[in-house]
Amino acid sequence: MNFDLTPEQDQLRDAVRALGRRYGHSYFVEKAKSGEHTTELWSEAGRLGYLGVNIPTEYGGGGGGITELALVCEELAAAGCPLLLLVVSPAIAATVINKHGTDEQRKRHLPGLADGTQKIVFAITEPEAGSNFHRLGTVARRDGDDWLLSGRKCYISGVDEAQYVLVVARTEDASTGKLKPALFIVPTDAPGLTRSKLDMEILSPENQFLLYLDDVRLPADALVGESLDAGLPALFAGLNPERITVAAMGAGTGRYAIERASEYTATRKVWGGRSIGSHQGVAHPLAHAAVQVELARLMIHKAATLYDAGRDLEAGISGNMAKYAAGEAAALAVDTAVHALGGAGMTTEYGVATLLGAVRAGRIAPVSREMILNFVAQHVLGQDKSY
Ligand SMILES: Cc1cc2nc3c(=O)[nH]c(=O)nc-3n(C[C@H](O)[C@H](O)[C@H](O)COP(=O)(O)OP(=O)(O)OC[C@H]3O[C@@H](n4cnc5c(N)ncnc54)[C@H](O)[C@@H]3O)c2cc1C
Prior knowledge:
Elements: H1 7-33, H2 39-47, H3 66-78, H4 85-100, H5 103-115, E1 120-123, E2 139-143, E3 146-157, E4 164-172, E5 179-187, E6 193-197, E7 208-218, H6 231-267, E8 269-271, E9 274-275, H7 280-308, H8 312-340, H9 356-361, H10 369-379
Parallel strand pairs: 1-4
Antiparallel strand pairs: 2-3, 3-7, 4-5, 6-7, 8-9
Helix pairs in contact: 1-3, 3-6, 4-5, 4-6, 6-7, 6-8, 7-8, 8-10
The protein binds flavin-adenine dinucleotide.
Flavin-adenine dinucleotide is lined by residues 88, 121-125, 130-131, 155-157, 202, 208, 361, 364-368, 370-371, 374, 387.
């Protein structure tokens, strides 16, 4: 068992931490409040190679794995900049295209994903299907060599800042008539694709959208992979990286909140000469949250290590557990930090309550805690499927 990072991973962690701190949470909040994106941070991270750490070197990436990308997600979040698009663009889209795309698709997309000049967001969720992707209603039909896509997607993050959206659609399996997923790389300005911004109670520079696909015409090579058979493995390829990196973002956010609160409670004095942190009623909840965050980090490390070793099934279990643990720990840490700061906890200045919406959403998306518990009950505990 090895709990140490390699010297290169250590260096990466330190460098990303320094970059994140240079921008900091106030930058993140300012961008969110003014309706802008974190373009400067994203571009600089791209130029420095941090967005492409998991992309092969032949396409301009760092040649590392999800372990490295999870470090980037965690450290930026720990600096108060939890960038959700790291989870969709480099984690999901780059992995899917690298593992299941055609040579042409790899050449077209991976270099831009690696240096951050290209963003590809991910659209699976639909209003009617929700957590049950077997009910996907976005249909892909052949029209000569082209494809026509029709359907609706919801809560899709970052469409306004991306050049492409990776859309999960359904085709029918010719033999069984059952869902056969197919993934398409759709330009965000494709005729027939329209969007409307959702008003979300999350303070974030990244937005969520409803997407309407009305006979969006795509050339044959918009389909990910050489044939329709690539659809299911391509869809699953994105899931473990998504869970691991979103967990890392949660753990980083939890670290950030606990650090803010600990600094405050160690110095704030309202009873004579003693800091409020000397009262166990203040310190224990923070210590408890710190334990939960650290446990989640261990599981993230395990999941990323298994994933990078190609042990996908085990990584699936650990990745789901890591996502569950980090989602709960981040929500606990931010709520506990807000409370430990008292009234200051609710101000913008102290930069903790600004994360309440984001960590609450982290218990729902990209996969809800209940769906993870269903997965664990079924695949670890051997229970019958409950739904
Ligand atoms: C901030 C944010 C960003 C997002 N970004 C994206 C994105 O970029 N791309 C994308 O495709 N989607 C995105 N989503 C959507 C997200 O993945 C879904 O919201 C999530 O998967 C839950 O689906 P739903 O909202 O339809 O909930 P539903 O499926 O309607 O579920 C509602 C509630 O019922 C519970 N539930 C449902 N089924 C079961 C069951 N069988 N057993 C027990 N409990 C159950 C759920 O856990 C949940 O609490 C985002 C969501 C948010 C909030």
